[in-house]
Design brief:
This protein is mainly alpha-helical and 190 residues long. It is built from five helices and no strands.
Length: 190
Amino acid sequence: MQPEVLAGLIGFGGAVVGAGGALLGTWLQQRHQAKLDRQQRRETRADLVEERGRAAAEKALSELYLLRRHISTWKAGMNAEGKNTWFGTCITHADEADLNAALIPEASELRERFRDAMETARMSMQIDAWESEHEPYLSESDTEHAIALLSAYMRGDPLPTPTRREERASLARSMRHEADIDNDRDSASS
């Protein structure tokens, strides 16, 4: 083989190897960049979810503080209209707190526990409004427990132990859920 042809083949082989290396390097760089981009998007999404959760929890907590403040306005001997107004305002604050807590993402245990705590607080408000003639101790205590639940969530602490009243509300909710499932099965089999 002539030296010129041999030199040309060697040069061509070198060019092919160089181009292949460049393509491989580009492909590896793009893969690595795509991996970094996916990780960055996941982190951004997680930050957004956490930010939304904190905002919803802060709104719910604010409503609970308003509720606690309103509970203290109860006076012994109020007339029926005053009791009705007091109870209505309590329920409005409780509903707003419940609504905001329901919007907290990735916190199913908190949402469930909070729903039970607020159901307990609503029952307490009804008892305090219509059946008691003393300070609204039950409403205040149950609202404080709901505040403790949200505060622990916001601090990242473990949730406080459920009160007995909260446990009863949880049991009642699960029994209603099971009864609904049984009713659905009975309806479907008919």
